[in-house]
Amino acid sequence: MPILKEGLKKLYFPSTVLKLVRNGPNVPAVSNTLTFRVPPSMNKFDIKSYLANIYKLNILDVRTANMPAKLAGSGGNTILKRQKYKKAIVTIDHEFKWPEAPDSATFGIQDAVNERSRMMNRLKGWRMRPHHGLQAAKKAAEAEAAAAAKETTKA
């Protein structure tokens, strides 16, 4: 059986993406555990090698969990299916502190939200309405028909 040596595999241009996500609400803001979303094809050795070679982290432990695909209803008859992924909880040798959340005005996030709501409000009243000339012609035709019906009942 070959001896596995972790962290010796050279990675120059990695084709996989490890997404660092915030830990759950029960984990303190400063801790030595990091949570990543990784592709389901990656195993513990790949994750450890990836983080050790690219980010030069000293990794103590890697735990993984396969997260199933979930159905997400969007209303109506369409059914969306969220993609399955693997969650990797990595323990490192030093403590990691998440940076403070940036101000939304700094990145223009609030401006984009305001612009979208302004555009949606602009289009709120847009729908196909019958032409006023056609409505008037319909009413006139109905009035003439009612008048003709009265004359026939009188005679």
Structural class: alpha+beta
Which term fits the overall shape?
A: elongated
Radius of gyration: 32 Å
Percent in helix: 25-40%
Strand numbers in spatial order across the main sheet: 1-2-6-3
Assembly state (oligomeric): single chain
The main pleated sheet reads as: 4 strands, antiparallel
Give the low-pLDDT segments: none
Instruction: Indicate the proportion of strand residues.
Output: 25-35%
In DSSP terms (H or I, runs of 4 or more residues), the helix count works out at 4
Mean pLDDT: 78
Order of helices and strands: EEHEEEEHHH
How many strand segments?
6
- The end-to-end span amounts to 111 Å
Name some characteristics of this structure.
alpha+beta; four-stranded antiparallel β-sheet; 26% strand; two-stranded antiparallel sheet; 155 residues
Describe the structure.
It is a single chain. The protein has 4 helices and 6 strands. The chain has helices at residues 44-54, 104-107, 109-122, 132-154; strands spanning 19-21, 30-38, 59-67, 71-73, 79-81, 85-97. A 4-stranded antiparallel β-sheet has the order 1-2-6-3, with helices on one face. The longest helix is centred in the C-terminal third of the chain and has 23 residues, at 132-154. The model has no long low-confidence stretch (mean pLDDT 78).
